[in-house]
Design goal:
With 280 residues, the chain is an alpha+beta fold. Helices cover 15% and strands 36% of the residues. Strands 2, 3, 4, 9, 10, 11, 12, 13 and 17 form a nine-stranded mixed β-sheet that branches. The longest helix has 19 residues. The mean pLDDT is 95. GO terms for molecular function: metallopeptidase activity. InterPro entries: MetalloPept_cat_dom_sf.
Amino acid sequence: MHIHLFRNARKWDSCLIPIDDTTFGMILQFKVNLVRVEPTTRFFMGDTYATGNGILHDTYGRFHLQRWGDTEWENYKRDFVNVVQRHWSDKFILDPSKDWYVPRTTSPRNSATIQCGLSIQLVDTAARAHQTYRIIHPQEDTFRSFVVENSRTGIFTHQDLESHWNDRPTRIGSETHNVSFLQTTINHEFGHTLGLDHVNGVGNTDRHYGVTLSERENQMGMGGLLTPRHARPWIQRLRNHLIPQTQYDTTVTFRGRVASPQLIEYWDNDWRPAAPTTAS
C-alpha cells in the first residue's frame, strides 16, 4: 500500500501520519472564515439575504439583526473552534478488515488502526478558507441555521454554540412519547459540512430528523449521539491517502467505531417507573 501523508482539497485538507507501528492518526484540517454580520451588513445567499437595514430576510420569516460586541465576537470565534473540535475530534477509530501496513522496520505487515482527528484554523478571508460561515446575532430565537455543502457556506447564530433542549413526539416500542433531546446546533450543522445527511436521508421534514428513539437521539437527528456511521468522512478520505499497489491492497477495507462511551442526552417525559410487585 502506498501512503500519501498530506492531501489538499477544496472542502478540507487532510493528513495521515504514523503514530507508531500499529497506529495512524488521520486529521481532517479545516480553514474556516467566520464573517461577523452586523445590522448594516449586506449579503445574499439565495432566499436568505440582508440589505443593510437591520433586517434579515429568510424562508422562515424576517429577523432583526443586533450588533456584536467586540469581546463577544472574539469569544464566539474561540468557542466555535473549541466546541466543534471537542465534539468531532478523536471520537472514532477505523479498524481494517485485514493486515495492510508494513512499517519501515523489519516488522511484518500488520492491521494498524487509524485514529480520526479534526482541526480548525480560523482565517481572515474567504479566499484562504475551505468553509465560510456568516454569523448573525438576531433578536429572535427562531432562525434555522443551515449549511450549503456544495458552496462551502453556512449561516449560524450567536446561540448555536450552546446546547438546547427540543421536545419531540418519539416512537418508543409501540407507543409515542414526548421526549426532550439535548443538541448543540453547531455540531449538527458541522456534520453537514462533513458531508453527512440527516439520520433519515436528505430533507428537512420532521421525519428526516428521526421517528424512533434511536433515530431521534442521533447527532444527525435531534440529539448528539455519535455512531459508527459518522466516521464515514474519514473512511472516504482514506481513498486519497492509501493507494493500492497489489490486488491484495484493493481488498482492504475499513470500518469505523466510536472510541469512547457517551452520555445519554435525552429525557422521556412520559416515562413512569414500573409498579412495585406485591409479595404473595
